[in-house]
Design a protein that fits this description.
23% strand; Alpha-D-Glucose-1,6-Bisphosphate, Chain A, domain 4; single chain; 2 domains; 7 strands; 7-stranded antiparallel beta sheet; alpha+beta
């Protein structure tokens, strides 16, 4: 009996992760890669797509915000470490991105100036993701070439690293009528290493989904509250 029990446990140890991975790939992954978006958005060519020509990871997510693009835009440009954070989970934001949850609920005038070539910081020492395209009130595209060995983006004039990962992360604002906005995010990642592919599929994709979904909903909540406050709503943003 003990031998059979040991074999059963060994099979379970192998089978459970395999079944979980198969379930994720078959049912959860396709949905999370296009959360909130429709077919017209998923298959649309969006600004920033040309930065990564042949992506091996591609996601399109979206949310409707009852505020104008000009009212949503300030929340995008102030993202980053030491700035407004990424409107995600308050405690993790405070620890990882030096973001005061109360401060992240305000438009911060000191962080409203952003240009191509600037870096949206995600950690100390100005480590972060570069701005590659910016059309005020419409498009904010971030990304570049990352050195997989360091996890950092290399400069535009630097030599291409031995193990490159090309990334684009784009936010597109599309007006819906006169008072609402469709906020669409598009992520494209290209790499050659199978090990990087396994890491992207197993860890980066699920983590990015959780963070980005919360980010989109966080911007929606803040922009709508600010818009209501500007319209004289009894529920102004604190």
């Amino acid at each position: 009996m003990s031998g059979s029990s040991t074999v059963a446990k060994a099979i379970a140890v192998v089978a459970v992760p395999v079944i979980a991975a198969a379930w994720y790939a078959r049912f959860f992954r396709p949905k999370q890669l296009r959360w909130g978006s429709d077919d017209s958005e998923v298959f649309a060519d969006l600004p920033g797509d040309d930065f990564v020509q042949h992506p091996k990871m591609h996601s399109t997510r979206a949310v409707t915000i009852h505020a104008t693009p000009d009212e949503v835009w300030p929340w995008l440009v102030q993202m980053g470490y030491g700035r407004a954070g990424f409107y995600s989970f308050d405690q993790s934001e405070k620890a990882a991105h030096d973001a005061d949850p109360k401060r992240s609920r305000r438009i911060l005038p000191e962080f409203q100036q952003l240009s191509v070539g600037d870096v949206i910081p995600w950690g100390e020492k100005n480590e972060g993701i570069p701005v590659r395209m910016l059309e005020a009130g419409s498009v904010l595209s971030l990304g570049g070439t990352m050195d997989a060995s360091t996890g950092k983006f290399v400069g535009a004039t630097a030599a291409r690293p031995e193990d490159p990962v090309d990334v684009s992360w784009t936010f597109v604002l599309k007006p819906v009528g006169e008072t609402s906005t469709r906020l669409i995010t598009r992520t494209r990642v290209a790499y050659s290493s199978p090990m990087i592919g396994a890491a992207v599929r197993g860890f980066v994709e699920p983590g990015q989904y959780l963070m980005e979904r919360k980010l989109l909903l966080g911007i929606k909540e803040r922009a709508e509250a600010k818009s209501r406050a500007g319209a004289g709503s009894p529920n102004p943003m604190i």
